[in-house]
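[Q] Does anyone have a clean structure-token version of this?
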Amino acid sequence: MDTRDAIQKAREMGVDLVEIASNAQPPVCKLIDYGKFLYEQKKKAHEAKKHQVTVSVKEIKFRPGTDEHDYSYRMERAREWLQDGDKVRAAIAFRGREMTHRELGAKILKKLTADLVDFGEVEVAPKMEGYQMFTIFNPKKTKPEGKKQAAPAPKPAEEKAEKKKEPKKPAPKEEVGQKESDEIF
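[A] Here you go.
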């Protein structure tokens, strides 16, 4: 269709002539309400943004002399963050003479890795960067619960047939004078 004819038809219908693919031969155009089109595009973009998952990196800091209680508190926070789907960066800061005892920091990170093995996996192995030793944990991917395969349920007709075949027998009494309520199962 000629461009002038398309524009005239759009005016008659009260809509806009919008070029969709300019690189095609011939160029592709549509007769649409452009305002409504823009509104729908914004709405789609907003919905896509709403369902987007943002992963943030949370950080916990240790020192080579971190006490057990402080360690356990920080480890629990890291566990919560990993369960929420965030990444965790565990850093150990060394000052002065502590730099000569890097094995203490490596020991803490090794223990943290062992404690968080059920919730996260190591993305970056422990390494030194300046006066800090750090490692980064990713949350573990969990399988959706709705996709678990269960054993097929027996059909009602099969259940009735099974019940008819097996008559229930009363449990034998152990002693003659014993009551039924005293029976041990």
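[Q] Thanks! Anything notable?
[A] The first strand starts at residue 16 and ends at 21.
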